[in-house]
Write a sequence for this structure.
């Protein structure tokens, strides 16, 4: 599989001098995230993916048809070692699934409400993404959600 090279299209400037100042701090998570989500590339991709997969992909596993209104990144892009890898993961459609707001909240904050089938599928999809990058010689950092309460069960 080919890994798309997006690094040359990383937005270099926000056009806002006050925000530009924040770029001095490269590990500002929130800034990276807002810069990515505000990019034209994301807005374009978001429309394409929601049009391509308008149904919640995890609910479909359970034979429920639910409109997808949000996109979830399987591997967290903002936790990567550098911005180029983060940007690649951010725009890699293999790393993105369409979900409803309810499913998205379950994934991030209440995974005990997901079915076993959905949890297994999520894990498989994540592993596929990690393997794809590994084959290309790129090491992906995989972090869990802090609010993941699976361990409490
Ligand atoms: Zn998400």
């Amino acid at each position: 599989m080919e890994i798309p090279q997006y690094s040359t299209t990383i937005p270099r400037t926000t056009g806002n001098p006050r925000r530009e100042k924040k770029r001095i701090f490269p590990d500002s998570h929130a800034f990276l995230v807002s810069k990515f989500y505000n990019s034209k590339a994301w807005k374009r991709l978001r429309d394409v993916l929601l049009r391509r997969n308008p149904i919640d992909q995890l609910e479909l596993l359970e034979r429920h048809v639910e409109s997808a209104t949000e996109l979830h990144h399987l591997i967290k892009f903002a936790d990567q070692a550098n911005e180029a890898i983060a940007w690649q993961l951010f725009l890699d459609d293999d790393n993105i699934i369409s979900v409803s707001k309810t499913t998205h909240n379950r994934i991030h904050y209440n995974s005990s409400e997901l079915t076993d089938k959905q949890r297994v599928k999520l894990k498989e999809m994540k592993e596929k993404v990690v393997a794809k990058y590994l084959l290309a010689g790129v090491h992906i950092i995989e972090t869990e959600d802090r609010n993941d309460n699976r361990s409490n069960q």
